[in-house]
Design a protein that fits this description.
Oligomer: single chain
CATH class: Alpha Beta
Largest sheet: 5 strands, parallel
Number of domains: 1
Number of helices: 8
Amino acid sequence: MPNRGPARTILFIGISGSGKGTQAAKLISALGSAYYLEIGRRVREYVGKRTIGGRIITRTTTRGELIPTWALLSLIGHEFLRRVPDGANIVADGTPRRLAEAKLWDRIMSDANRTLPHAIYLTLSERAAMRRLLDRGRNTDDRPAAIRRRFAYFRREVLPVVSYFRRHRRLITVNGDQSREEVWRDIKKALGLR
């Protein structure tokens, strides 16, 4: 049965391979409807575009790097200006990966008179994440050297975002090193979903 009540904004955070996309899809289904902001897919829409931003995004993603903060903040802003319906539940994964993004989410929700976002942090060791990513091997980003760069970025940039949400009492921590069903059970319980 769809969850009723005020619109929610839930952001999935976790190391690559922690299952953010899988759990986000389950949450959207449980909420009945939600706008799903998948930053990775939005970024890929610009790869190969003959624009300044498209060239920068193409260059950085083919190197296995993350796009500049200004480009990511622009993408998020564009979503809210052009695509996200007013009053919708929002579920996102792949953001926030930097403190500036976390603060942008808070500012947008505050300006929209919405409840500030909660982050679900799916914990997973680097060893387990490496194994999952090598098993899936879905693209060139899933090679050991690229994976190690993403892990280093996660430690440097994303863990402070986790601390930010924890400090503001809007962090839900879930053990990502369980079965998908067990992770989903813990998320439902934490969010008070049936």
